Amino acid sequence: MPPQEHRVRVHLDRLLAERGMTLSELAARVGVTVVNLSVLKNDRAKAIRFSTLTALCRALDCQPGDLLSVDPD
Amino acid sequence: MTGKYGWSRRSDRLLEAALGLAAALAAVFGILLPLLGVLGITDPMDTREVGTAAATRVPDGVIRATAGHGMTLTGGHRADLALTHPDTGQRLLLALPELVGSLLLLLVLYLLLRMARTLRDGDVFVPDNARRLGVIAGAALAQAVLAPVLPALTTQLLVRGTPLSDAIPFQVTFTGAYLLLALLVLALAEVFRRGTRLRADTEGLV
């Protein structure tokens, strides 16, 4: 199956701003490197592990739907 | 700097140097010198070991020497075909199996050298390497067929129209070594292809 472009947007920057948290602090809390979180924040990630998503939602006190959305066609 | 498995930048350089040296030796001794022999510049190639229909004769002295020891010595079915004054075409036929084998070897060494260079970037799982391994497997398969067929074919062309054509039958003996090698390299190519795809899948995974 040929790879398809995705339209998933990550709202990590907004959630971080709302909670007054830095990327480094979040990285320390979820155990993911700042580099990888930066990839996620800048919409350069192609996939996210459920374990990472769980850790992010726990640290940011949110649901996956708050973190991710899909752009309309 | 030494890597996780004891592999270092120096190892990369050594591997490339070894492959480069092997390619240079194959080019000189497998291609250049036989070609110079064909052109008559160096000692011309004039002999080929062939299979014969009749057993070759063992010298009487040797037979007599074994007689008192409960042993017999008989001739084998191999002989040397020597051309007294081979022309350029005959010299080319004599050198052709070695030239083709060396060209295939040179192709394999060149591709291995290109693969070794990808080690410098620390990433061998690239689509080009999977393709290169496929070509190496093809070269091994070609050698599996050509190594026994070419000498037999060129020998027949050399003795065609002479009384020797009856004494030297068309004999081809295939061995499984090259075929096994080709299959192994094909399997390795598939491992690389899947490894490359797997890496592409996990790239960008957070």
Give an overview in words.
Chain A: Residues 12-67 form the HTH cro/C1-type domain. Chain A: This is Helix-turn-helix transcriptional regulator. Chain A: It comes from Streptomyces similanensis. The complex is a heterodimer of chains A (73) and B (206). Chain A is mainly alpha-helical and 73 residues long. Chain A has a single domain (8-70), classed as 434 Repressor (Amino-terminal Domain). Chain A contains 5 helices and 2 strands; from the N terminus they run βαααααβ. Chain A has a two-stranded antiparallel ribbon. By secondary structure, chain B is mainly α. Chain B has one domain (16-202). Chain B is 65% helix and 5% strand. Chain B has helices spanning 9-38, 60-67, 88-118, 127-159, 164-167, 176-202; strands at 47-51, 78-82. Chain B has a two-stranded antiparallel ribbon. In chain B, helix 1 (9-38) packs antiparallel against helix 3, helix 3 (88-118) packs antiparallel against helix 4 and helix 4 packs antiparallel against helix 6 (176-202). The relative contact order of chain B is 0.12. The chains are: A mainly alpha (73), B mainly alpha (206). The A-B interface holds A 32, 36-37, 39-40, 44-49, 52 and B 202-206.
